[in-house]
Design brief:
Number of domains: 2
Largest sheet: 7 strands, mixed
Shape: globular
Strand content: 5-15%
Radius of gyration: 23 Å
C-alpha cells in the first residue's frame, strides 16, 4: 500500500513513541467482563471529567467576540486608507485574514495586558506594471497606512492599534498570476505553489531580497479546515443519555460537550497556550519558543495522517493524547537539516531558522514537547474531578474562580461566532 506523506510520517511516529498516554485508561475499562456497548459507555463517562476541564480551559483562552469585531473594524479602516490614499478602485483591494485568526485558533495571552497579533494580507488586484516593482509596491502600501502608524517589517507592515488589545501584521500581496511571466520565472525556484492550492496563491514582497516570494495563507487555512472536518471519532453524535451523565461530572459550566469536529482546533489552541505558559514559567525563551505556524502544521499533518491511516478514537481526549505523543516525531531531518514543510508552497520550510541557530530552536521544541507530554500525563493520572480541574488550571494558567460557584474562571468565555462575510475574519 502506498501511503500519503502524512500517513507515512504518522506511521513512523507510531513506531517511535514508547507508549500511548491513554492506554491504561482504555484497557482498564475495555478489559472488564461486560458487553462492548457498556464498555464504550463506561469509557465515555470515564473521560468526561478530563474533557470537561480541557473544554473549559479552551473557553477561557478564546478571544472574546467583541475583540474579534474590533479587529474586523480595524481591517475595514485599513482598507479605507488604501482606497483613499492610493486611488486604486475599491474592488481591487481585498483584506484577508491569515494565520490563527483564519483557522479560528486565536488565543488570549496568559498576561491579560499583553496584546495578541492578528495577521492579515492586503491582496491587491493591480496591473502588471505595478507588479514589476515589488519594493515600490510594498512602500506605497506603507505610505498609505502612515496615519495608522504602520511600521515596516521584513514582509509586512505592523499596525499597532494603540487603543485595542491586538495589533495587526499587514502583508501587502498580489495574486500570483498577476506577476509578469519573466518576474515569476525569476522568483526563488524552490518556492513553488502546490498545484491543488494554485487558485489562492499570492506573491508577497521579501524586502531583504527585494523580490516577490510565493505565499498562500488562504491555501493553508483551507488545508486546516479540510483536515479538521475529517472524522476520527467512532461515535460522531453521543447518545443523549451519555451527554446527560457526562454533564453531571462538571459543575455550573455551560456546554460540557467537547465539540468533536473541533478536536484539531482545540488541540492547536491548548498547545499554543501551553507553549505560552512555558515561556511565562521560564522553561522556554521567547526567542526560541516554537512559533505558531510550526505547531499548526505539525498538528494538522498528524491529524491528517491519522485520518489517512484510518485510525479512529472513542473520545476526543484519546485523540488529543495521541496528537501530543506523535507530534514531536513528525519533524523531518534531511541531509542534516530540520524541516517542517509548508503543504501549500513547495520548498518552503517553516523550520528554516532551526538550521542556523546551532540547534537552539530544535532543543527548545523538544523540551516543550517533553513538558507537554509530562503535563498531559499528569492530568490523565488524576482520578478525582476536582483534582483534574485543579491540574488543568495549573498547567494552562487558568485562574481559579474569584467568586462563588465552581469552574475554571469567574467568567466563561464562549467561542466567537462566525464573522459575517466581508468583515475579513473567519
Amino acid at each position: 500500500m502506498i501511503l500519503t506523506k502524512s500517513a507515512s510520517l504518522v506511521h513512523q511516529a507510531e513506531q517511535t513513541r514508547t507508549t500511548r498516554l491513554t492506554e491504561s485508561l482504555s484497557h482498564s475499562i475495555l478489559g472488564k467482563s461486560i458487553g462492548f456497548d457498556s464498555a464504550m459507555t463506561d469509557l465515555l463517562l470515564t473521560y468526561s471529567p478530563w474533557a470537561g476541564a480541557l473544554k473549559e480551559a479552551n473557553d477561557h483562552i478564546t478571544v472574546r467576540p467583541e475583540e474579534i469585531e474590533a479587529a474586523a473594524d480595524a481591517y475595514e479602516e485599513a482598507a479605507q486608507h488604501l482606497v483613499a490614499n492610493l486611488k486604486w478602485p475599491d474592488h481591487t483591494i481585498n483584506i484577508l485574514v491569515q494565520g490563527s485568526a483564519s483557522t479560528q485558533t486565536l488565543i488570549r495571552s496568559p498576561n491579560g495586558n499583553e496584546k495578541f497579533d492578528i495577521d492579515a494580507v492586503c491582496q491587491v488586484d493591480i496591473s502588471r506594471v505595478t507588479a514589476r516593482d515589488p519594493v515600490g509596491f510594498f512602500q506605497s502600501v506603507g505610505d498609505a497606512l502612515r496615519e495608522l502608524e504602520a511600521e515596516a517589517k521584513k514582509r509586512c507592515w505592523t499596525i499597532p492599534c494603540s487603543k485595542q488589545k491586538f495589533y495587526i501584521e499587514f502583508t501587502p500581496s498580489v495574486p500570483l498570476d498577476n506577476v509578469p511571466p519573466n518576474t515569476l520565472d525569476a522568483m526563488a525556484p524552490k518556492y513553488r505553489v502546490a498545484e491543488q492550492y494554485r487558485a489562492t496563491a499570492l506573491a508577497v514582497v521579501d524586502t531583504p531580497s527585494e523580490m516577490w516570494k510565493t505565499s498562500n495563507p488562504a491555501g493553508m487555512t483551507k488545508w486546516v479546515d479540510d483536515t479538521a472536518r475529517r472524522q476520527l471519532i467512532r461515535q460522531v453524535v453521543l447518545d443523549s443519555v451519555i451527554l446527560a451523565k457526562s454533564a453531571a461530572h462538571v459543575d455550573q459550566v455551560p456546554d460540557q460537550k467537547v465539540e468533536i469536529t473541533d478536536t484539531l482546533r482545540i488541540a492547536i489552541r491548548l498547545f499554543k497556550r501551553h507553549r505560552d505558559m512555558c515561556v511565562r514559567r521560564n522553561i522556554l525563551t521567547n526567542e526560541f519558543a516554537p512559533i505558531s505556524i510550526i505547531i499548526v502544521t505539525l498538528l494538522t499533518r498528524c491529524y491528517e495522517g491519522l485520518a489517512d491511516l484510518g485510525r479512529t478514537y472513542v473520545h476526543p481526549v484519546e485523540l488529543l493524547a495521541d496528537l501530543t505523543s506523535l507530534m514531536p516525531h513528525l519533524v523531518l531531518k534531511l541531509d542534516g537539516q530540520y524541516r517542517v514543510d509548508n503543504p501549500t508552497v513547495e520548498g518552503e520550510n517553516f523550520a528554516e531558522k532551526w538550521n542556523t541557530d546551532g540547534g537552539a530552536r530544535y532543543r527548545s521544541f523538544s523540551a516543550w514537547c517533553r513538558v507537554l507530554n509530562t503535563d498531559l500525563k499528569a492530568i490523565l493520572e488524576e482520578t478525582e474531578k476536582q483534582a483534574i480541574t485543579n491540574r488543568v488550571r495549573e498547567v494552562f494558567g487558568i485562574p481559579a474562580p474569584t467568586s462563588g460557584g465552581s469552574g475554571l474562571s469567574s467568567k466563561v468565555v464562549a467561542a466567537p461566532p462566525a464573522t459575517p462575510a466581508g468583515r475579513g475574519l473567519a
